[in-house]
């Protein structure tokens, strides 16, 4: 009688590649020696990448471990929650909330412009006193296990969008820290504050940074942005921010 274990290797690769990654690693690998061998094959994980749209022809030479590449692709998403003010201030910690405090407005806003991304409809806006808000991302909770972060050190890409009102000057600041288990700063991105003059073009601008080859031990990512207006006008004339993102992993279509 023929069993599934008697199937040719290429057929077994095709069948097993249909299963979820967790089942392959936690269950199928333990069935027998042959299955463990097949589950560890590069061709199986490359096939899974093809099935789910992660595979790009010219990546062949740059991918050293297709299993890890697949895992990172399947985990990849924006780790910032409520990036564009659709859920009020949910998920954000208001570290500084001075002047007339943080506010949410609809795009394009008074003396403002629309975002390049038509899916973004709102933004957070600062006042005449310092306004800063932050999120702390726990990597293990998001599916990024310690060994993966320490051994593979996948790229961490941070993006944020900011704009000023046409009629008021303002200041924008950003700080992103990679933290250890004990909240020790292992690496930091803290560029010079951006000061925008009055009578500016009110255009939305993107700031971006990629963490690479950072130290082992990263367990949290702390993101903070904000600022204020520079003319101390009552109301909400300060920097506007929206469409924030933090993604981890290989360069894909996301």
TrEMBL record:
GO terms for biological process: ERAD pathway; glycoprotein catabolic process; SCF-dependent proteasomal ubiquitin-dependent protein catabolic process. Gene3D superfamilies: 1.20.1280.50, Galactose-binding domain-like. Residues 69-250 form the FBA domain. The keyword ATP-binding does not apply. The keyword rRNA-binding does not apply. GO terms for cellular component: cytoplasm; SCF ubiquitin ligase complex. It comes from the Eukaryota. Keywords: Ubl conjugation pathway. Residues 1-48 form the F-box domain. GO terms for molecular function: ubiquitin protein ligase activity. Pfam families: F-box-like (PF12937), FBA (PF04300). PROSITE patterns: FBA, FBOX. This is F-box protein 44. It comes from Aquila chrysaetos chrysaetos. The gene is LOC115342896.
């Amino acid at each position: 009688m023929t069993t599934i274990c008697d199937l040719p290797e290429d057929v077994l690769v095709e069948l097993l590649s249909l299963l979820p990654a967790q089942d392959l690693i936690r269950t199928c690998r333990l069935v027998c020696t042959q299955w463990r061998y097949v589950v560890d094959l590069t061709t199986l994980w490359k096939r899974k990448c093809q099935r789910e749209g992660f595979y790009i022809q010219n990546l062949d030479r740059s991918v050293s471990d297709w299993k890890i590449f697949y895992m990172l692709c399947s985990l990849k998403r924006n780790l910032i929650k409520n990036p564009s003010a659709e859920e009020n201030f949910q998920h954000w910690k208001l570290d500084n909330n001075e002047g007339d405090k943080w506010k949410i407005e609809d795009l394009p806003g008074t003396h403002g412009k629309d975002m390049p991304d038509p899916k973004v409809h709102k933004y957070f806006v600062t006042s005449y006193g310092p306004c800063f808000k932050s999120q702390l991302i726990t990597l293990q909770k998001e599916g990024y296990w310690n060994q993966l972060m320490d051994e593979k050190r996948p790229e961490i890409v941070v993006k944020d969008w900011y704009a000023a009102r046409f009629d008021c000057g303002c200041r924008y600041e950003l700080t992103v820290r990679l933290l250890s288990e004990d909240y020790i700063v292992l690496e930091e991105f803290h560029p010079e504050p951006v000061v925008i003059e009055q009578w500016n073009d009110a255009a939305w601008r993107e700031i971006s940074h990629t963490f690479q080859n950072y130290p082992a031990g990263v367990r949290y990512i702390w993101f903070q942005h904000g600022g204020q207006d520079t003319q101390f006008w009552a109301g909400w004339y300060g920097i506007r921010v929206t469409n924030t993102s933090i993604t981890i992993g290989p360069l894909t279509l996301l």
